[in-house]
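User: For my dataset I need records formatted as: sequence, then structure tokens, nothing else. Please produce one.
Assistant:
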Amino acid sequence: MAEPEWDADTRDLVIALEVDLELCPRCGQPAEICQDPERQFDWQAGAPVRCHATTALREAQAKVSEETNPHTDALIWPLQLRDGRVNGRT
């Protein structure tokens, strides 16, 4: 049997640290780091990766207009894998 990566004490410590850590609402990084002007040039962006779920969402949203469906901003758009797909694979 494989050993767990973290024991209960370590897991609880990490959870406690995450609760106390204020994350940036824009990027999700620790706010004290990503919003620090002295660290402005410490960051670099990687190559973009497409979220195919968001692509499907945007395509569905483009088919709906305020004219035919008033208050489109009030619509909730559930996302799910197509039938027969598990973790994105057949």
